[in-house]
Amino acid sequence: MSSPRELFFKFHAHAIQVLDKHLNPAALRERGGSFKIVPPSARQLAEQCERSEAFASFARAALPSKGGPKVWAVSEVVRRCGFYHDLLAERDPDNMWERIAKRLVLQTVQTRTLLLLDGCAFPINKFPVFNRSIKRFSEEEIASFGPPLPICESFYTTESIDTKWFSRQWFLRSDWRDEKKPGHIILRLGTDVIGDVWEPLLSLALYDISGFGVPIMMESEEGWKLERVNWNTPAFEILSDEYGTEVPRSDYCVKEAIADKIATRCAYLVGLDDDAKRKNVFSAVKTVYEQRSRVVHGTRSNKKGKSNKKTRALELQEIRDLVRRLLVAVVSLRLHLGSDPKWYEALRELPVSRKIQDTVIDSSRRALSLMKEAPSP
Fold first, then answer.
1. Domain finish residue from 236, 270, 293
2. What's the confidence (pLDDT) of residue 251?
3. Is residue 17 part of a domain?
4. Residue 42 contacts residue 147 (beta carbons within 8 Å)
5. Does the pLDDT of residue 368 top 70, yes or no?
6. Which has the minimum average pLDDT: 105-114, 141-150, 203-212, 274-283?
7. pLDDT of 20 over the 90 cut
C-alpha cells in the first residue's frame, strides 16, 4: 500500500497534467505567433483536481477513518496550505508536502480570541487587564488573523476583513493553546460573552461610564483560519475625521444596512452643504430602495398605506431628476480626483470626512447648478 507522501506526489503529477492540458503549450508552439493562454484560477484548478481518483486516493491515505475518507478535511488542508497557488507559481513540491504533512496530524495550535470593544478608546495601544489584554492592532497584524489574502480571495472570502477599519478599533484579547486534529468538527451551542469575560468587561465599564458594546467575537489561528463566532452591527458610530473632530459614522465596514449606505452617500453627493436638501435626498433614496427591495424579495409592508403614500409622493420625474444629478456629481468627482482608486476611497469615506465633503462641493457645485430643475408634477 502506498504511503500518503507517495500518493501526494502522484496527485501533484496529476495536477500538473490538468494544468498543462489547460495551457496546452504544445498547441501554442505549433500555431506560433504571440498567443498566450490565461492560466486557470486557483479555485478552478482545485475543483478540477479534487474530482480525480488521484486526489481520492491521497485523501484515503492521509486521513483514514471507519466512516470513509474525510475528503473535505484533506481538501481544506491542501487549499489553506496554498498548494494550488504554489502549483500555478511552479514552486517546489517537496516544500508543499512539508507544509501539508504538518497539518495532517494532531498538533498543538495557538488560538487567539478577539472581542471588538465598540465605543472604547484608550490613550495607549496595548495594556493588560486581569488575565487578558486590550490591544489595537496594526493593519499588518489584522491581515494575519486568517489565511493569506490570495487564499482568502480564492477559497475563504468570509475570512477576509477590512484591515483599515479594524486597525482603528480596540480588542479584548486572550490567547490559548489547544490540540487539533484535521477532520474533527467543533459544534458550538452558543457563546456567553459576558459570562466568559465579565471581569475585564466590568473593569472597562467602571473606567468609562458612557457605555460600550461587544458586537463582534472572532477566533484567530494566525496565518491559517479566522472564525467569526459572533458578527453583529456595531452600535456606536463615532469616528475622528481628518480635522480631529468626532463625527457620526454611518458607513461602518461591518454588516451595514445597504439602504442607509447608499442613501447617505447620495445625500452628500447631491445635497452638498445644504442640510435640508441632504435630508430630502436621504429620505427619497431610502424610500425608493425599500420599494425596490419589496419588489425583488416579494414582500409587503406591515404598515399598510404608509409606504404607498411615500411612493406616490415621489413622482417618477423627481426620481429621474435625482438620478441625473447623482450621475453628474459622481462623474464630476471622478474627473476632479483623476483616478479610480482615489475616487473609490473618496466615495467610501465621504460620510465621515469633511475634507472629502469639501472636495465634492468644489467638484460638483458648478455642474449641478447648470442643470435644469425637474418640472413640477
1. 236
2. 34
3. yes
4. no
5. yes
6. 203-212
7. no
Same domain? 180 vs 225:
yes
Q: Over the range 81-120, which residues count as b (16 or more CB within 10 Å of their CB) and which as e?
A: bbbbbbbbeeeebeebbeebeebbeeeeeebbbbbbbbbb
- How far apart are the C-alpha atoms of 217 and 113, rounded to whole Å? 7
Read off the pLDDT of each residue in 20-42 and give the average, rounded to a whole number.
67
pTM equals 0.60
The domain in which residue 77 lies consists of 4-102
| Residue 246 zone, left/alpha/beta (φ > 0; ψ -120 to 50; rest) | beta
Is residue 114 located within the same domain as residue 222?
Answer: yes
The helices-and-strands tally (H runs, E runs) of the chain is: 18, 8
Nearest-angstrom CA–CA distance, 171 and 215? 11
Q: How many domains does the chain have?
A: 3
Q: Which residues of 175-193 are buried (b: 16+ CB within 10 A; e: fewer)?
A: eeeeeeebbeeeeeeeeee
Same domain? For 280 and 299 the reply is yes
**pLDDT at 254 (0 to 100):** 35
Q: In what order do the strands lie in the sheet with 126-129?
A: 126-129, 132-135, 171-180, 107-116, 216-221, 225-231
Report which of 336, 323, 322 is spatially closest to residue 364, judged by C-alpha positions: 336
Residues 308-328 have pLDDT tens digits of: 555 555 567 788 888 888 888
As a whole number of angstroms, the distance between CA 162 and CA 27 comes to 43
**366-372, Cβ contacts within 8 angstroms, sequence gap of 24 or more:** 367/328, 367/329, 367/332, 368/270, 368/272, 368/325, 368/328, 368/329, 368/332, 371/324, 371/325, 371/328
The Cβ of residue 283 has, within 10 Å, a number of other Cβ atoms equal to 15
Closest CA to 87 of 141, 34, 147, 154: 154
Most confident of 42-46, 235-239, 287-291: 42-46
